[in-house]
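Thread: "does anyone have the structure for this chain?"

Original post by V.I.:
We have the sequence but no experimental structure in hand. Need at least a predicted one for the grant figures.
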Amino acid sequence: MSRLTGFIFVLGVLMIGAASMMAFDAYMNDDRKDAVRAEINTQLDEGAARYEERREDGCRRRCGFFGKIAAMVTELRDGVFSGVPFDPETGLPQAPEGWTAVPYDLALTEAIVGQKMERTVLVSSTSNKLLMHFDDMAKAAQTGAVRFYRKDGMAIAMALEISREGLRAEPKRKARVPGNAQPSQIVVDGLPFMRHAQVSVDALTDKRTPVAYHSYSMNLDGQVDIKVIALAPDAEVYRFLASFDLEPIVEKLPHQPFGYAAGKDSISTAQLSPQTD
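Reply from O.Q.:
Generated one for you, tokens below.
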């Protein structure tokens, strides 16, 4: 008798649970489901963003448990279930006249930067971060691409990264200026390339070491990030960047970057005059 009573009790609990789930499912219409899904994605994105910021600041192991889990979940979610609006290879410019395009090679990147890459999860110098970033983008088939350009002993490398998180984010009202950088006079379709200080900073000691290469970047409201490193005179780099056309990229993005204006380019004649570094 006791077994029958127990069976009836368990069956009753299951029936109540099933009824509750059915009632909850009926309550959760499409609009409510979309709202809950959006809220969960927002919290995951915010947690992952905080985790990445702490990692960049050198938190090493103590970057936050929730942030680490959020970063893992968003990476899996974005990598498996989300596509990108264009092939990053097609976003890189063709070689301008006089230049030759060359496939990615780590040794070529190291030659521009002037040091060997040290693959590490710990805090490292600006130069080593650039090497790792270019290497990562070259291996990120869906979201990143790298291309080299050569001319008469000069070398320029450009990396393009598509951010799934940035593609989902709300449009920004103003452009974000990265640290240790200032707007250059190279404006492509209304958007400036940022010129970074010609030094490599050790994040642990704050030691600043002068470098021979030039470093530029452009961020399209978090949707696409473009990095350029060059071992060439300023005038050659400026001419190269001025030939870049953003329209094929922007027309495929969900949000037009702040300040974008097709065909609005500018570059000073002084920058284009022959000079050597």
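V.I.: this helps a lot. The CA atoms of residues 100 and 150 lie 5 Å apart.
O.Q.: and The two ends are 95 Å apart (CA to CA).
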